[in-house]
Description:
By secondary structure, this protein is an all-alpha fold. The chain has one domain (10-282). 70% of the residues lie in helices and 0% in strands. The chain is built from 8 helices and no strands. The protein has helices spanning 10-17, 37-59, 68-87, 95-111, 119-131, 150-183, 193-239, 245-282. Helix 1 packs across helix 7, helix 2 (37-59) packs across helix 4 (95-111) and helix 4 runs antiparallel to helix 8. The radius of gyration is 23 Å and the shape is globular. 27% of the residues are buried. Mean pLDDT is 87; it is low at 1-5.
Amino acid sequence: MASAEHGPTASEYIVHHLQHFATDKQKFIVDFSIINIDTMFYSILSGLIVIFFLRKAAATATSGVPGRFQGFVEMLVEMVENQSKSIVHGNREFIAPLALTVFCWIIVMNTFDLLPVDLLPRIWEVVGPATGVVADPHEAYMRVVPTADLNGALGMSMGVLCLMLYYSVKIKGAGGFVHELFCAPFGSNPLLWIPNFMLNLIEFAAKTVSLGMRLFGNMYAGELVFMLIALLGSAAALSMGGAFAFLGHIIAGSIWAIFHILIVLLQGFIFMMLTLIYIGQAHQAH
Length: 286
């Protein structure tokens, strides 16, 4: 991260924290030729956390007076079920649980952003070289927010795209879906087939890209703000002899963390709602 003689500059600090622990050096913002191991690890870990708590809620559920945990989970399930019922008209045996999973999964992934920005990366700088996974502590990169990785966010939105295409074919049939691609929204005149097809392709692409970019942009910005707060604390330590560094970190970090909780929850809700809307549109004909 920096040489032994000098501490890192602000730009070096941020660049280091924005590097992924990956199978190779990333050359582009979106690079599908490599695997960001940290994104995959924390995504899977978040999924396991969601499975654990939902399974625990199902195992301890009672028909009597529910406890606080069961009451919270029931309220969450009811909220998601009501949203899916109002948007998707048809069989929701898979769609409602999918929406609940997406909502909880994204919230848990986003919540990693509330951890101290240097906590897990510093631990990895010790554990990585000690286990032989990385040779140099300065090359021990670690990013802990999967949704702040554009590869991860776009990967999730591409999964939603696959569901849109699947339900379009399932509900309308292969012939009906192809007919809609070429004949909607302008009509079935052969001269309009290509404009219709191109417009539908643009619509699918815009939905996919905007869904992933919205989640990524908000979480990436939040991650950068936490880094800037850490740098401001370091600057205060240098200018004031360290007397107010800890206090400054606590105050500034706490204020942004409280505000960021709203972003964490809101982004999970928006992604879930748009997933339901896009799948609901696949159930409808133009």
